[in-house]
Amino acid sequence: MVRKTIQIGKEEKHLVEVEVSQWTGKARIIIDGNEVAYDSVLTSKSFNFVVGINEKHNLTVKIGGVVTPIIDFYVDQNIATSASQGSKNTKRSVVEWIIIIILTLMAGIAGYVFMQYLLTSLFG
User: Fold this and answer.
1) For 13-93, where are the alpha helices, taking DSSP H only?
2) pLDDT, tens only, 49-101
3) How far apart are CA 92 and CA 108, in angstroms?
4) I need a labelling partner for 34 at 20 to 30 A (CA). Which of 4, 17, 59, 79 fits?
């Protein structure tokens, strides 16, 4: 699960939380403790909200990434946080490293088996 939070507003503060499951591809967006969106984000997706009563802000939450979700917040069309600005979302989790290692080993074994098959078919 990747989580990212941001507080927006100068006088009227609002807490925005985003959670993305790497296993299910589901994203949950919570503003001030209220769930405002729960949707699949298997591809890049944007969510738009107006936050505030007296101090209104246009909030866009963009969720992308292939293996590790990248969550960006835009407040009044200006980027508030980004993965390219040192977000924790750019780091690989332990689970991702385990998957990468297993896939690499499987590819190596498959290559070895294929070469053995090819050599025995060509040279008996």
Assistant:
1) none
2) 999 999 999 999 998 876 778 888 999 988 887 543 334 444 566 777 788 88
3) 22
4) 79
Q: Where are the domains of the chain?
A: 2-91, 92-124
pLDDT band at 35 (very low <50, low <70, confident <90, very high): very high
- If you count them, how many residues does the chain have? 124
Pick the CATH number of 2-91 from 1.10.1760.20, 1.10.3470.10, 2.40.128.180, 2.40.110.20: 2.40.128.180
CB neighbourhood size of 71 (10 A): 26
> What are the structure tokens assigned to 81, written together?
């946080």
Please report, as a single letter, which amino acid is at residue 105.
L
What would the two tokens of residue 116 be?
């053995």
pTM: 0.62
Q: Are 52 and 10 in contact (CB under 8 A)?
A: no
Other CB atoms within 10 Å distance of the CB of residue 13: 11
- What are φ and ψ of residue 9, in 5° steps? 105, 145
CA 6 to chain centre: 16
